[in-house]
Structure formats: C-alpha cells, structure tokens
Specification:
single chain; mainly alpha; elongated
C-alpha cells in the first residue's frame, strides 16, 4: 500500500475526529435519542484506534524505507500522547476541545511533514516494492508514449 495514501487517510481521520468532537456539543441537544450512538465513547475510541493504526503504518514505513527523518514520528507521538491523555482524563468542556484540536493538529502536521519528506526523498532513497511499482508504471507510460510518438 502506498504511504502517501496512508498519510492522506490518516490526516482525514484526524480531521474527522476533530470535527466530530467540535460538532458533538452542538448536535447533542438536537438529537437526544440518537446522541448516545453518534457521540458515544465507542465512536471516539474507534477514531483513536484508526488514527493509531494508519499513522503508525504510514509513518514507520516512511521512516524506515524512505526518509529516515524522525521529526514526523515525533509529531505523531506527541499528538497521540495528547489525544490519549484527553480521552482518558476526560477534562471538562473547553479543555477537552482544546486538547482534541491540539492533538489533531499535531497528527495532521505529522502526516503533512511525512508527505513532504517522502516527496523530497522518494526519487533518491526509496527501494520498497510499493514505490518501485510507481516508478515502474511511470517508466512504462513514458516508454509507451515514446513508442506512439515515434522518433
């Protein structure tokens, strides 16, 4: 699986989590019967686990194979530590929102940095199968284009 897709999916999950946490207090009074299912702890922990799996997969692969730069992993670790602290401590109102938005910001920043590092190093350092397939298909496309256009 391509790490760029994982980074984008992980960023989207982090943003969705932040939007969910921001809108939950607004939606809660409007949906008293369904609110427990929409904004319950199970959904929140699902966001946390999806963020952990996607982030860890993408960032560790890119670190090991592509760029060897620890900054994206550090941002992700800090963001995830904040997110877990907020989920476990459950601070009241505004503190929870600030913690979740801070965590989401760190997680998204980690994936954006990882994408940038990957793009800047991919041509030179990536030897993994997922990126070799990208390079192979680009070479095949260029060869097919040259064959069609002729000399």
């Amino acid at each position: 699986m391509h790490t760029e897709r994982l980074d984008k999916a992980a960023s989207a999950t982090s943003i969705a989590c932040a939007v969910h946490c921001a809108l939950s207090p607004l939606v809660l009074p409007l949906l008293p019967l369904a609110a427990g299912h929409i904004v319950g702890p199970a959904l929140e922990w699902t966001f946390v686990m999806i963020s952990l799996v996607l982030g860890t997969s993408s960032l560790t692969h890119s670190f090991r194979v592509v760029h060897r730069d620890w900054r994206a992993l550090l941002l992700f670790t800090a963001g995830f530590a904040v997110l877990l602290s907020v989920r476990v401590a459950e601070p009241p109102g505004t503190l929870e929102a600030l913690g979740v938005f801070g965590a989401a910001s760190l997680l998204v920043a980690a994936h954006v940095l990882n994408l940038r590092l990957g793009r800047s190093h991919r041509e030179h350092a990536c030897r993994c199968a997922c990126h070799q397939a990208e390079a192979g298909s680009a070479e095949e496309s260029a060869h097919a284009e040259r064959a069609l256009l002729g000399p």
